[in-house]
Amino acid sequence: MALDRIEKILEKYFEAATSIAEEKELKDYFASSDVAPHLEQYKPLFGYATQAKQEQFTAMIPLKTKKRYSAVWLSVAASVVVLLGVGLFTYNHYNQPTSEDLGTYDDPEVAFRETQKALALISESVNKGIVGMSYLNEYEQSKDKIFK
Q: Cα(first)–Cα(last) distance of the chain, in Å?
C-alpha cells in the first residue's frame, strides 16, 4: 500500500502538483534503505538535497594584499591633465586682446553703405528662391487646366 502511495505521489511530483508535505514524504522515502528496485533510479534526484546540505566549502580564498600603484599614478596623471587644461583655458581667456569693434559705425553714411551691402546680399539669396518658385507656378497652371 505504501508503495502505491509513493508511486502516485511520484507521478504528481513529475506533473508539478505535489504539496510540500508530499515532497518531504518522497525525500524521506528515497533517503531510507528500503527503496523498491524499480524506483532506485529516482534516488539520486531526491537524495541530492540532503547531500547538498552536508557539503561545505573548504577551499582557501587568496586575498589580494598587493597594492596597485598603477591606479594611483593614473589618478595623479589625470589630475595633472585636468589642472593644466583649466589653467590654459583661463590663461587664454583672460589674456585675449579685447576689441571694441563690434560692427558699430560712427559715421552714418558708412553705416548706410554697409547696411545696403548686407541687404543686397540677402536680396540676392531671396531672388534665387523666387526663381525656383516660378516652376511651381507653371505646375499649378498646368494642373488647373488638366483637372478642370
A: 97
Give which of 51, 21, 32 is closest to 13, Cα–Cα. Answer: 21
Burial 73-91 (b: 16+ CB within 10 A, else e): eeeeeeeeeeeeeeeeeee
Domain ranges of the chain: 2-54, 107-148
121 burial type by CB count under 10 A (0-12 exposed, 13-18 middle, 19+ buried): exposed
Collapsing DSSP states into helix, strand and coil, what is residue 98? coil
Q: Is 103 left (phi over 0), alpha (psi -120 to 50) or beta?
A: left
CB atoms within 10 A of CB 6: 19
Contact 43, 51 (CB under 8 A): no
CA distance 26 to 49: 12
To the nearest 10 degrees (0 to 180), the angle between helices 20-31 and 2-14 is: 120
Q: For residue range 75-126, what is the model confidence (pLDDT) as tens digits?
A: 899 999 999 999 999 888 887 766 555 667 888 898 899 899 999 999 988 8
pTM confidence score? 0.36
